[in-house]
Amino acid sequence: QVQLVESGGGLVQAGGSLRLSCAASGRTFSDYYMGWFRQAPGKQRELVAGIISGGITNYADSVKGRFTISRDNAKNTVALQMNSLKPEDTAVYYCAVGPIATIAGMRYWGKGTLVTVSS
After folding, report:
1. What digits encode the pLDDT tens for the residues 36-58?
2. Are strands 113-118 and 10-13 parallel, antiparallel or unpaired?
3. Close Cβ partners of 101 (under 8 Å, ≥ 6 residues apart)
4. pLDDT tens-digit series, residues 24-33
5. pLDDT at 30
6. C-alpha span between 115 and 113 (Å, rounded)
7. pLDDT tens, 55-105?
8. Rounded Cα distance, 27 and 21, in Å
9. So what's the pLDDT on residue 19?
10. In a 10 Å sphere around its CB, with 0-12 CB exposed, 13-18 middle and 19+ buried, how is residue 87 labelled?
11. Rounded to whole angstroms, how far apart are CA atoms 50 and 107?
12. What angle (nearest 5°) sits at the alpha carbon of residue 66, between those of residues 12 and 14?
């Protein structure tokens, strides 16, 4: 059974940092795109950052220069380092993996971890 478990969310002041981690189990995902998505109250889920096995990354414009995604294929994990956090980054953050780098292309999802950034 495939499981994705996120950790690292919490409450932080604006300008602060958090590191999210996601541990995958049940199969290896070295050939899959791994991504972080977020959904704020009343808004649609959006891609934050993603990474393919070769290390090529993509980021939402709103987080470029502040967030960094990384993965460890040997450990089946993906992480998101978030710096210079802003109140508008407040959302539930989800880890997901899939063969295609789109929301619809994600095959497995974690349950999410809440990030709250206070002003």
Report:
1. 999 999 999 999 999 998 889 99
2. parallel
3. 33, 35, 50, 52, 58
4. 999 988 889 9
5. 87
6. 7
7. 899 999 999 999 999 999 999 999 999 999 999 999 999 999 999 888 999
8. 17
9. 98
10. exposed
11. 14
12. 25
Encoded amino acid at 22, one letter: C
- The secondary element (H helix, E strand) that includes residue 21 is strand 18-25
Contact 109, 36 (CB under 8 A): no
Q: What is the DSSP string of 28-66?
A: --TTSEEEEEEE-TTS--EEEEEE-TT--EEE-GGGTTT
Residue 78: name the closest of 36, 110, 25, 114 by CA: 36
- Tokens at residue 23, please? 């541990």
Number of Cβ atoms within 10 Å of the Cβ of 115: 22
Measured distance CA(108)–CA(116) in Å, rounded? 24
Q: Cα(25)–Cα(9) distance, rounded to whole angstroms? A: 20
